[in-house]
């Protein structure tokens, strides 16, 4: 079975880089950003001193830049940590600013700490970034002539205001984010089952996987220890758990090219509305008495299961000291975090030296650009540098227009509101859009409100260009291994997850524990494949060998997903008049997947292995053979020499 050349179907790297994510506009986040940033300016202007409003508005930036959708408990921890870290960084910058002998070492040290704490998780990563950003911004505030304690007080006032705006609706919308996440699962189920085209249904399946992962993450993160709210979270979690059989049966139907009756799709839509409105669930449609298709019978049984719910065992929260120990272990177990910290520290040091040499006031934007682009765990360095440059060029152009129009007073307040909303949209759509709005926003807050000079616009453009050049030259082109292909190990990990799912899905689950293990294995496999796809999409934007190899390996990702779907199709029929496959055949399948993973790790072509010759597993075998063909070629020059991957794999295995 042949595989089409991936480079013919893949988009150009620049097109991929500029592509905006097709997600809805987060109007709630837009509204919060506008209120948090524009209201202090409006109040201060009405009181006669808009410059004070700009300083207070600056303190509101950490929460706006760190804002994300999710449960209130999660957002409180995320925004609280980011705000505290930004406040600490800003204070360090204020105390050392104006004295290069103090500010340069302080910024370099904060950059290193910011990179290291990124290994502790996404919230720690965001907090580290805010600490670095506002440390750099703080070093430039000595030029305002305002006392340090006054600047710090205004910043704290703005930080408290934005934190209040972000969480003010918690008291009367406590479980609304979680209900929305669960309801979205049913919406995506209906969309997948309604698709008539194979390509559309596959995209819908990806969106369903994302919705399931998001819902589980939010519920497991948000569950409160307060008894009054714990019951609501537990009910939603049980409902989501009971939906898993319906999800599996739906994926099996779509993979087989079957579509359920319209009443089933309408029922999923009705379930979504009921969950959102916190109303009793509708009765499921009755199953046809003469239904012979076990996949469709499994779907109807899954609909009944949703109404009954599950009783999941409560998962105890991980103590803080155990999380701290895990983070410390990640630092000691492998050099990847240390290498990222070293790269960031080196480039920040170069940026600080360059900032002392350029003939511009407040050249901290050079360092700021370097830190934001090179921040670990935020995707392709090359892609972020290019998008940062393009976005800043657009943003500076907007700033120039504002200066030319002589924007002051209420015009300035309105512009801040527009840019704040643009930042909220850019965060979820595209990094270039974010840069295009955040640049004029910070210019207006920290520069134009006080100086109003054209030199500010020119300086910001030159500073950003210098920062991007430092990143591209020292952090990408000259940095060892930055352009080296590094995707093979992740593919092998995805195959391991699929193999684990095969061993759990193709046996009869006669007990609740077995069904729970199968459900977790399925979620683990699809989550691993979703993460793998995201990681490859980050790398594919690079024009280097790293990006070209990611394009060449892309068919292997698609093959893994089809294997998982084929396994799901067989698994949902087991126990509904269909016996489970022979254990020896299941072992052959897992051995074949292990061989694929081993071949990728050992940089060789996979050997031919025996596969089951049973009608029941024919679909799985066909997709598995396609995976073997995808790993072998046919003519994927960008994968060779495979020994390049070896330099990455020792680090990958340790982390």
From TrEMBL:
UniProt KW keywords: Cell membrane, Membrane, Transmembrane, Transmembrane helix
- Could you name the Gene Ontology cellular component terms for this entry? plasma membrane
Q: Which Pfam families match?
A: FUSC_2
What is the protein name given in its UniProt record? FUSC family protein
**Where is it localised?**
Cell membrane
Which spans of this chain does the record mark as coiled coil? none
Q: Which residues form the Integral membrane bound transporter domain?
A: 351-474
Which InterPro entries does the record associate with it? Memb_transporter_dom
Keyword Cell membrane among record annotations: yes
The organism of origin for this protein: Amycolatopsis eburnea
Please indicate if the UniProt record lists GTP-binding as a keyword.
Answer: no
Family listed: Belongs to the YccS/YhfK family.
Q: What is its main location?
A: membrane
Q: Which residues cross the membrane?
A: 33-58, 79-100, 106-139, 151-172, 336-360, 381-403, 409-426, 433-451, 457-479
What is the membrane topology here?
Answer: Multi-pass membrane protein
